[in-house]
Each structure stands twice: as C-alpha cells, then as structure tokens.
Amino acid sequence: MPVSSVKAYAAQSETSGVHPHAIKRRALRPDDVAIEIDYCGVCHTDIHFAENDWGGTMYPVVPGHEIIGRVTAVGENVSGHAVGDRVGVGCIVDSCRTCEPCQHGLEQYCEAGMISTYNGIDRYDASVTYGGYSEAVVVHQDFVLRIPDKLDPATAAPILCAGITTYSPLRHFGVKAGHKVGVIGMGGLGHMGVKFAKALGAEVTIFTRSEAKRAEAKAQGANHVVISTDKAQMKAVRGSFDFLLDTVPVAHDLNPYLGCLKLDGTHILVGLLEPVDPPVMAGALVRKRRVLTGSLIGGIPETQEVLDFCAEHGIECDVEMLDIRNINDAYARMKKGDVKYRFVIDMKSLKAA
C-alpha cells in the first residue's frame, strides 16, 4: 500500500479548536496493518493535547487513541491479522520491545518511552504520529488488538483507554471477591471502574461530590454511595476499604480518602498527572502502612485481556455517539462533565464532512 492522503480532524494551535485537515499515512511496512476506522472514542487527554495543557504538543495534532476499525491491507510479514478482521488500536503504537517492561508486556512503561498513537515520534522515520480522528491508520501488527465478536464495536472503543486504565490496576493489585473497593469520581473512568470491580467480585462504593449522582451510581452497579463533601458520611466509612481507585483528573485533597483505607489499604491514582495539592499527610500512610500509588493505562497483552474480559462478562462503556463535525461542542461539554460517560465518533460523519 503506497503513502495515502486521508481526511482527518486536527488542532493547529492551542486556541484553534479541532477542524478538518488532510494527513498522510505511511506506506505499508512488512509488519504493518492498515485499518479503516469505524469508531474513535474521545478522551479528556485529547483535549489536553489539542490545547497544549501539558506542554509538548506538536501541531498539527490529530487526537484519538480509542480506535476501532477493519483491516484493509497487511504487510508481507503479518501473521495475526487478515483483511476484513475487526481490530482496535489503543494508546500505544510502538515501543523499544527489548527493555524489561516491554519484555513483560508492559509497553506503557517502556524505558525508551512508548510511542503514543498521536503526538509521538515514529522510531523508524521520525515522523509525528496521528491519531484516530481520521479515516484510516497504519500500525505495526504487535500493537493491533483483536476485537471479540461479542462486543459492540462502538461501545468497545473506550475500553482501549478508559477501560484498560481502570482494569489494569484492579488486576495488578489483585482485587477479588471479599474486597471492598471505593471508586472516586463518576465519569468515563469511574463508571468503568465500578463495572470491573463488581465483575471481579468486590463490594463497590462510589465516592461523589454530588447527591444528584446517587441514583446514577446505583444504576451503574455500585453497592453504596458516599457523598464526599458530607463529613458525617466520610467519618462513617473511615478504615473501611481495601482499595480506592481514584479517577479524578484534577488536583484534589487526598487526605480524607486516605483515612478511609484499612491497614495496608491502597489508594491508586489513575486520573491525576499534576502535583498533589494540598500535600499528603504522611502520618495517614505511616500509621496504617497504607500505600499511595499510581497506574498508567496498560500494556498490549493486558489490553487484549480486558477486551476479552468485557466480552465474557457483558461489560460495555456507556457512550454518546458523536458526529465529528460537533467535536468542539463535545470538548466544551466534557469540560463541564456533561456526557454520560464517553463520546464516540462515528467515522461515517468524517466521510460526510
């Protein structure tokens, strides 16, 4: 397959918004898979890169790392995928393959740095990677995932980021029947965390700031709901939890939550990348041997595992389908928390754009 020009949506600057833009996809290498994109989830990370919130955005940037599509061509050395297969691409499109994390299927912790699906630098030709807000993508076979037939492809898209981000730490820390898990935050990550913790057999509590979300949390399967701004409710659950899965993406006070952990309890950050503010009271950790830790998405083997797990347990993300021409409105709504719980772009709308 030669170099091809495809339709996409890109941000040109911090303030430009995301608009139509033509990009080129590379010619097929021997180990590559070419994919026509059917659906792409919209992650809050997309906004951060489009608006350069974290610095380092290389414009134009084409966001999107929750990609579902069909294989249209394969390189001569490809063995695991065939034309017509339904496949997915998540947050990673390459890594060094040789360091210890990569050798253990933990490409997200690659010592040379994972190559992100967008705003990354290709290891071979130094081109900038472009994401899933586009008609097609070309990816090395080792980073292409099989989508089980039982999964709805549209609702499966966010599993490739929101899903694996919450599944990976629950599996890594061994959540199982008999454990009490608190999920902090009720958004795209949080609602998936509830579903996974329940499927693993845990008793699940949602922590939310809003009384209005109580019924919503119960509908997602939470056993209990705690209003985190209610001091009496927080006091009532002190020392109760084995694990807290913290999905909040902005700075927030961790200290009240740490007090809710049991001896040897673990507080897992999956949403926050900024400095912790206010500071953590070390005594809350020391006096109960509690652990404050973090987790980053998941490697390729574990991402395949979560897709298969979702198919087996009938788990899907709650999504709102989106016409790509409305992407900037969607970003504005996401900033206000006005989506239940994840936007997914139908790429038929890109063809019409």
Would you give an account of this structure?
By secondary structure, the protein is α/β, with parallel strands linked by helices. The chain is 25% helix and 27% strand. The chain is built from twelve helices and 17 strands. The chain has helices spanning 44-50, 100-103, 153-156, 162-172, 188-199, 214-219, 231-236, 255-258, 282-286, 300-313, 327-335, 348-352; strands spanning 4-11, 18-25, 32-42, 67-74, 86-89, 92-94, 115-116, 136-140, 145-146, 180-184, 203-208, 224-227, 241-246, 261-269, 291-294, 319-322, 342-346. The strands form four sheets. Strands 3, 4, 5, 8, 9, 16 and 17 form a seven-stranded mixed beta sheet that branches. Strands 12-11-10-13-14-15 form a six-stranded parallel beta sheet. A two-stranded antiparallel sheet has the order 1-2. Strand 10 (180-184), helix 5 (188-199) and strand 11 (203-208) form a beta-alpha-beta unit. Helix 4 packs across helix 5. 45% of the residues are buried.
Mean pLDDT: 96
Largest sheet: 7 strands, mixed
Low-confidence stretches: none
Specify the structural class.
Answer: alpha/beta
Q: Roughly how many Å is the radius of gyration?
A: 20 Å
The proportion of residues forming helix, as a percent range, comes to 10-25%
Q: What gap, in angstroms, lies between the N and C termini?
A: 25 Å
Question: How many helices?
Answer: 12
How many runs of DSSP E, i.e. beta strands? 17
Provide the succession of SSEs.
EEEHEEEHEEEHHEHEHEHEHEHEHEHEH
Global geometry? globular
Residues in β-strands, percent: 25-35%
